[in-house]
Amino acid sequence: MPITVLLVDDQELMRMGLTMVLDAHDDITVVGEAGDGAAALVAVRKLQPDVVLMDVRMPVVDGVSATGQIVESGVSSRVLVMTTFDLDEHALGALRAGASGFLLKDTPPEDLVSAIRSVAAGDAVVSPRVTRRLLEWFLDKDPAPSRDPEILDALTEREREVLQVVAAGLSNSEIAERLFLSESTIKSHVGRILTKLNLRDRVQAVVLAYETGLVSPGATRKRAAEATR
């Protein structure tokens, strides 16, 4: 069965272009369009798409609010956010609301298609560069933890360590090399972290690590710098 996609953007020309790109692939089909978040909510309930490709700045209901309502509704549809700027607190709001990915609108078509396939398979899509820049930009403005750190008590010491490195934007292979563990072991740790904390994917895990104060922007910059040495 092809991956079904709902396009949500207030620019008709953008939706037309995305439809042409996606319908060129046999394993992806665009099943509907919406010009604002309110129309998107109606379409999601009706069409139950695998992936919702969501703009964040729209009239009536913005993409952040729409993403939150889609996630809270319990439908299986996963949201992939697209925006013009990589330093966009609206995009961070969408990630906090439960979006499974974040891409720039100038993303090459092949990367967009790959991202849709990944999100449909249950993975998260946010590049390490964008993850660090977006979260650190936001938290530099308001660095105070906003979630009770006791929520992390469910994790073992090793799982907390893994979560700290995940928050630096490192991939599983990079984390494995850094912690001297196998990649499969890291995948298992990440899976247990998501289960214990009731999170959809590693994007939400990164956000939670910041919100609880487990990591800070300064600490993340240091880890990221060390990882590139």
Helices and strands, with pairings:
Blueprint: E1 3-8, H1 12-22, E2 28-34, H2 37-47, E3 51-55, H3 63-73, E4 78-83, H4 89-97, E5 101-104, H5 109-120, H6 128-141, H7 157-166, H8 172-179, H9 183-196, H10 202-211, H11 217-227
Helix pairs in contact: 2-3, 3-4, 6-11, 7-9, 8-9
Q: How would you describe what is shown here?
A:
With 229 residues, the chain is of the alpha/beta class. Helices cover 53% and strands 12% of the residues. The protein is globular. The termini are far apart. The mean pLDDT is 84.
Brief digest:
It is built from 11 helices and 5 strands. By secondary structure, the protein is of the alpha/beta class. The chain has a 5-stranded parallel sheet, sandwiched between helices.
| Structural class designation | alpha/beta
Percent strand equals 5-15%
User: What is the overall number of helices?
Assistant: 11
**Biggest beta sheet summary:** 5 strands, parallel
As a percent range, the share of helical residues equals: 40-55%
- What's the overall average pLDDT, rounded? 84
Spans of at least 5 consecutive residues whose pLDDT stays below 50 are none
Indicate the radius of gyration in whole angstroms: 17 Å
Number of strands: 5
Strand order of the largest sheet: 2-1-3-4-5
H-E order? EHEHEHEHEHHHHHHH
Overall, the morphology is globular
Distance between the termini: 44 Å
Task: Give the tags.
229 residues, alpha/beta
